[in-house]
Design goal:
Blueprint: H1 3-16, H2 19-25, H3 30-44, E1 49-51, E2 56-58, H4 60-88, E3 91-96, H5 101-113, E4 118-123, H6 125-133, E5 139-144, E6 151-159, E7 188-190, H7 197-210, E8 217-219, H8 223-231, E9 236-239, H9 241-247, E10 250-253, E11 259-267, H10 270-277, H11 282-286
Parallel strand pairs: 3-4, 3-5, 7-8, 7-9
Antiparallel strand pairs: 1-2, 5-11, 6-9, 6-10, 6-11
Helix pairs in contact: 1-2, 1-3, 1-4, 2-3
Length: about 290
């Protein structure tokens, strides 16, 4: 027996003094109200109502039980309200600044169909980890070494369109020779999303190994600044294929080493992390396949 449903019928019918009116107020058929109250009486082993052809009245036992039944109904309604509010409360998710608007919108729409109201908060890598650590967001897409990540995004170097360019960029070709003295050296720009040790340090060490000058590897927090420098020169931007396509640049892998971003989820609870990992449209927001 559903005790809450039976108590709702009992409270409504006793309040209206009529099975017909009480059942209508409770939005159930009269026959259902009658069966539920009868089941409640059987459960308690005593009559709750006296019935006549025109009306019903509380028995002494019913008058004693009614306040508790009313409290149970009120608590059940409060629980349903709180559960609905919790379901609709935005799930704050820290995402990369590089996540394009269209894939993010699709992710939010898909999550709603799964009863999850996402509220994306774009932030750089260190800030995303901090937001998760301080519980300012329920979950964050954090940068991790690619072998440890749920999602992997290949990285390469992108520059202005060059139809005759090779299939890969070798960083050693950016090293200035004797004939290049006095000319501006080509630079590699590392934007904020890749300013993490497992990406930045690898490309910096590669530059040192092949003889680049320290000033030829530039770290900036602004993707706009880095892209503008690339568009205005022969410099190269470290980025994903999806970013290069969005920026109108030609992307090529790095010849000397495979490089990638890795992403995972950190969250308040394991359940929250699993819910985000299970969303198929997270990958396009990161530029992952």
């Amino acid at each position: 027996m559903d005790v809450v449903a039976a108590c709702k019928a009992f409270v409504s019918v006793s309040g209206y003094g009529s099975f017909t009116a009480g059942a209508a107020a409770a939005r159930i058929p009269q026959s259902v109200a009658s069966r539920r109250i009868a089941a409640l009486e059987k459960h308690f082993g005593a009559r709750l109502l006296t019935r006549s052809s025109r009306s019903v009245a509380l028995t002494p036992f019913g008058r004693e039980v009614l306040p508790s039944a009313r409290r149970l109904v009120e608590l059940a309604e409060a629980l349903e309200h709180d559960a609905e509010q919790a379901r609709l409360r935005p799930f704050r998710l820290a995402v990369p600044l590089t996540s394009p608007a269209r894939p993010l919108a699709r992710l939010v729409a898909d999550a709603r169909r799964r009863d999850l109201t996402l509220d994306p908060h774009p932030a750089p890598p260190a800030r995303r980890a901090e937001l998760a650590r301080t519980l300012e967001v329920r979950a964050a897409l954090v940068a991790v070494p690619p072998d440890d990540g749920v999602w992997r995004v290949p990285l390469g170097l992108a520059g202005r369109d060059d139809p005759g360019a090779a299939t890969a960029v070798y960083v050693e070709t950016l090293r200035a020779g004797r004939a290049d003295r006095g000319t501006r050296r080509r630079r590699i720009w590392i934007e904020g999303e890749d300013d993490v040790p497992h990406v930045r340090d690898r490309i910096t060490r590669l530059g040192d190994a092949v003889g680049l000058q320290p000033a030829q590897v530039v770290v900036t927090s602004s993707l706009v600044t880095a892209t503008a420098e690339v568009l205005a020169s022969t410099d190269l931007l470290l980025c994903s294929p999806a970013q290069a396509d969005d920026l109108g640049l030609q992307w090529r892998p790095i010849g000397e080493l495979p490089l990638a971003r890795g992403y995972d989820v950190t969250a308040r609870s394991r359940e929250d992390a699993q819910r985000i990992r299970a969303l198929p449209l997270v990958a396009p927001c990161l530029g992952a396949s």
